[in-house]
Amino acid sequence: MAIAAGRLAQIGAGQLGLVTRRQAVKEAGCSDRMLAELCRSGVLERVRRGVYRWRSTQPTFEQAALAACLATSTAVASHVTAMWLYGYRPKKQSRHGKVPLIHVSALHGREQPVQPGVRVHHARALFPTERRVRDGAPVTSPIRTLKDLAGMLPRSELEDFIGHLMSQRLLVASDLRRLHQELSTRSGSGRAGSAKLRLALVACGLDGKTATVLEQRVRRLLRQAGLPEPVAQHPIFDEQRRFVGRPDFAFVAQKIVLEADSYRWHTSPKAFAHDRRRGNRLEHLGWKVLRVTAADVTEGLPELIVQLRSLLGDAATGTVDGAPEGAPCRIA
Predict the structure, then answer these.
(1) Are 51 and 18 in contact (CB under 8 A)?
(2) Do 287 and 250 have their domain in common?
(3) Which residue, among 227, 221, 229, has the nearest Cα to 300 in the 3D structure?
(4) Same domain, yes or no: 158 and 196
C-alpha cells in the first residue's frame, strides 16, 4: 500500500493535489478498498465523483476548476471560469467571496455526470488551438473564451476583458483583428453574441480598419510642424487594469491624448455620450485630452500646435540627443 500511495502522490503533485479513481487503479495500482482506506485515514478526500484531493494541499479555485474538469470527460474550464483563470474578476461575481459556479465545456454527444456547482456546456468541437493550461487547469484559449462569453456578458464587460487580456500580453492586437474579420464573415456571424463582440472590438479600436483621412491629415500636419511623432491607437488602462480607451493619438510620456473628431462617427447622442465618458475617465487618470475637428485641420491647426509645443516642452523644440536647435525632430 505504501508503494501505491507513493505513486498516487506523484500523480497528485502534477495535478494540484488531485487524483482520479482511474489514475489510482491503472497508474498507481490501487484498489477501491485501498482508496477507501486512504479516505478513512484522512490522507485523501473525495471532492467529485471519481476525483480525490490530498488533504495536505490547500484548496484553491484553480484546484476546484481542475476537479470539475477531471470529473467531466474531455472537459476544459470555460466561459466565466476561464475569465477567473485568466486573472479577470467579473463585476457581478467579484463583490462576494463565494466560489462561483464552475463552467466547463465538453464535447457534444457524450453523456456527462451531474455535478453540483458545475455547468457543463456541450461543444461540437474543441480544437487543440482552442485549449490552454492555466495555473495547472485546462482552459479554453483567450479567443475561444471571448466567443463563448459574447452571448453572456454585456458589451462593457467584454471591452474590459479584452483590455485585461491585452494588458497581460495574453492576446495582441493582430489576434483580435483576425477575430473581427472572422466575425464579419457569414460563418462567424451566426454565433450568439457575435454582433456584440464585434462592436466591442470596434470600440477598442481593434476592427482592423486603417486610419481615417482626418487622422492621416492630422498626423501630416504634426509632422510638418516638427512635433514628436505620437503613438496611434495606444491602449490605456486604469489602476485595476480595466480598459479605458484607445485614442487616435497619444504622447505617452507626457500623458497627452489627441482625438480627431470625425462628424461621421461622433454626431449621434450615444457616440457623443460615450466619448465624453471616456474623456472624463482619461482626465481622472491624469491624461490631458485635446480634440481636433475637420475645420481645425482645414485651418492648419495653428492653435493646437502652439498648445502642444507648450505642453510637450523640450520634446517639441525639435532637438533630440544633442541635435542643433531648430533641426527637425526625427522619431525612430
Answers:
(1) yes
(2) yes
(3) 221
(4) yes
